[in-house]
Structure formats: C-alpha cells, structure tokens
Amino acid sequence: MRNNRFNQQKKEDLHRINGNIRAREVRLVGDNVEQGVYTIQEALRMADQLELDLVEISPTAVPPVVKIMDYQKFLYQQKKKQKEAKAKSVKVVVKEIRFGPQTDDHDFNFKLKHAKSFLEEGSKVKAYVFFKGRSILFKEQGEVLLLRFATELEEYAKVDQLPALEGKKMIMMLSPKKAPVKAPVAPKKEVEKKEVVKKEAPEQTEE
Predict the structure, then answer these.
(1) Bridge partners of 29?
(2) Which of 40, 47, 57, 113 is the most buried (most CB within 10 A)?
(3) In this structure, are residues 153 and 172 in contact, taking their beta carbons and an 8 Å threshold?
(4) DSSP states of the chain as a string?
(5) Regarding beta strands 53-58 and 65-69, do their DSSP bridges make them parallel or antiparallel, or are they unpaired?
(6) Structural domains of the chain in order of their starting residue, each with its CATH number
C-alpha cells in the first residue's frame, strides 16, 4: 500500500517512486489501469485511487515509463529472488597442495591422495612448488614435478592452468572432472513366493 514513508527516496531504492518522480509526463503501464501518456499529477491520482505506488521503471524512456504497483511487495519479492539465486549458486572451494622442488616419492604420494579426495568432493586444487632461496635454480625440476602430479590425476581432474612461475611459486590449477552419469540400475524383481497348499487327507467314513 502507498505509504508516506515512500515519499522520501531511500538510498537503497532502485527506482524513483511517487513524489520523487521528476518528469512532467509519464507513460503509464500496469494492471487495472488504462495505459497511456499522462501528466505526473494524473498518474499519481490514479495510484492513490488504487492505494498503490507509482514506480518509475524506465527513467531513460521518452516519456519515462511508470507502473502502478505495491512497491513494498515488489522489493520483498526482489530480495527473495536474490536470496534464492544466492542459495543455488555453487561456491568454488580451492584447496592448496604445496611441494618443495625436491619432494620425495613418499611425500608426493601422500599429497596425491589428498588431492584426489579434494577433487572427488568437488573442490579445485591449487598445486604449487615453493622455491626458497637458491632452490629457484631447480625451477625446471619443479615444473616436471607438477606435470607428473597432473598426469597422476588425469582421471580425476582437468588442468585449468599449466605450471607457471609467479614470484617464488610455480603454480598449477586443477579442477574436478564431472562425474560420469551412471545409468539407473533396474530394480530387482522380487521372486514371487508360491504358496504351498497342503492337501488334506480325505475323511474316512465309518461303515
């Protein structure tokens, strides 16, 4: 419903409403109204009669387009839609795996196992080799290590970024492969149990 508090434009409002609409003439649209071009005074009077708000929905049009609606209800629906869209959006989680340029096989396999679990849960993996001090001389060795890591994970991940040196780190980005769609398993048919009918012995008659 139209309310006096809507006469003062709020900073969070996306539209001019009611008395804040500056145009002298407007093109009116909306339900239960005769659409057309009106003076702003006529449009406001029509909104008052319906106990609704006059909302400027296209300020750049000539003349600006306005609509008669319940603005408070409109804002509520917009916030609800944004909240639902946010809930549906998938958050990308990035897990880091750090290596040294001379990582041994035991440590490599240990981190490989962790990377597999991260990818299986849907997280991205940022694998990098950290070069400390003079170890930057072994950058080719670090690249070989990362490429070996990617090869070991080819069933689980795709490479988003090949090994690239950024400062003291050589970084490679991996993202999980989409799991293959498994064909639905047909339910097993229940074996019908046959009822065992016991045959009763015929009654003997006394002679």
Answers:
(1) 67
(2) 47
(3) no
(4) ---GGGSSPPTT-SS-BGGG---SEEEEE-TTS--EEEEHHHHHHHHHHTT-EEEEEETTSSSPEEEEE-HHHHHHHHHHHHHHHHHHSPPPPEEEEEE-TT--HHHHHHHHHHHHHHHHTT-EEEEEEE--GGGGGGHHHHHHHHHHHHHHTTTTEEEEEEEEEETTEEEEEEEEPPPPPPPPPPPPPPPPPPPPPPPPPPPPPP-
(5) antiparallel
(6) 4-85 (3.10.20.80), 94-176 (3.30.110.10)
Rounded distance, CA 23 to CA 126, Å? 55
Closest CA to 64 of 31, 7, 19, 16: 16
- Residue among 63, 64, 68, 29 at smallest CA distance from 52: 68
* CA angle 67–8–85, rounded 5-degree value: 60
Give pLDDT tens digits for 97-156: 999 888 899 999 999 999 999 999 889 999 999 988 877 777 888 899 999 999 999 999
Give the integer Cα–Cα distance in Å for 20 and 9: 7
Are 120 and 157 contacting, i.e. CB atoms less than 8 angstroms apart?
no
